[in-house]
Design goal:
Layout: H1 2-34, E1 46-47, E2 56-57, H2 65-92, H3 95-126, H4 140-161, H5 165-179, H6 182-188, H7 201-204, H8 208-247
Antiparallel strand pairs: 1-2
Helix pairs in contact: 1-8, 2-3, 2-5, 2-8, 3-4, 3-5, 3-8, 4-5, 4-6
Length: 248
């Protein structure tokens, strides 16, 4: 009875998080198009081109950052959850930690794809030719983010290849721990050599309307995406229960 009550509360929390996140995301989308300016003053919205040439104005293209940045924050959250889940499984051997680590990896694969896609689309405009993929230049930030995304995918694929549940659990925990430090590497990669990636959002966009929308987006979109971790966790726990019943 207590297990059912806990499960019901967990599902309720998941639904509430998803609802708050989706409502917040809708507000952010509205603000990003109708509240933030197209251009503040000439030269204020700009980014330096990869070859060190003259700065270019961002105009409308910066609005994609309101999705790009929260997705990056959620990717960092997923790395942290993988690390915590892996360590806790090794300490306790409880299945819930494996379910959490897997949920974080699944969500990390999704939000990491959003980061790569939105970043590439923006780069196509900022310093590419306008063709899809023309802005990809294999600089450290882009390359390390791609490696992180592939690492999330590798964890999920390797889980499927394990012969026994025990092997699967151990692999998930160890791999989850190894994923933990990868996002700090992505974050620091912008400091390695010449990079076209903006070093910070604040350096590029200084209008108060943009700052307000940025903070709201960071909270709302991150909550919406973090609710995916909670949803996948609940689904993974259900799958574990089904496997136990079948094995009994």
């Amino acid at each position: 009875m207590k297990t059912n009550e806990k499960s019901s509360k967990a599902w309720l929390v998941t639904v509430v998080l998803a609802a708050l996140g989706l409502i917040g995301a809708e507000v952010v989308l509205y603000l990003s198009y109708y509240y933030t300016p197209v251009q503040i003053t000439p030269g204020t919205l700009w980014v330096v081109t990869p070859d060190g040439g003259a700065p270019i104005n961002l105009y409308e293209s910066y609005r994609i950052f309101f999705i790009h940045l929260p997705s990056a924050y959620t990717t960092a959250l997923c790395c942290t959850v993988c690390l915590v889940g892996g360590v806790m499984w090794l300490l306790t051997r409880k299945e819930k930690w494996e379910a959490l680590t897997t949920a974080a990896a699944e969500t990390g694969l999704f939000v990491g794809a959003i980061v790569l896609l939105t970043g590439t689309l923006w780069a196509d405009y900022a310093w590419g030719s306008g063709r899809i993929g023309s802005g990809w230049n294999w600089e450290p930030r882009l390359t390390t983010m791609l490696i992180l995304w592939l690492a999330f995918a590798a964890l999920l694929v390797l889980r499927k290849s394990m012969d026994t549940p025990r092997q699967r659990s151990v692999m998930t925990a160890v791999y989850g721990i190894l994923l933990g430090p990868m996002y700090p590497l992505v974050s620091k990669a912008v400091e390695l050599g010449r990079t076209s990636h903006p070093r910070s959002f604040s350096d590029l966009l200084s209008a108060p309307e943009i700052a307000t929308t940025k903070y709201l987006a960071s909270i709302a979109v991150t909550i919406a995406l973090a609710s995916l971790v909670a949803l996948r966790y609940q689904m993974n726990r259900l799958n574990q229960q089904i496997e136990q019943e079948r094995a009994a």
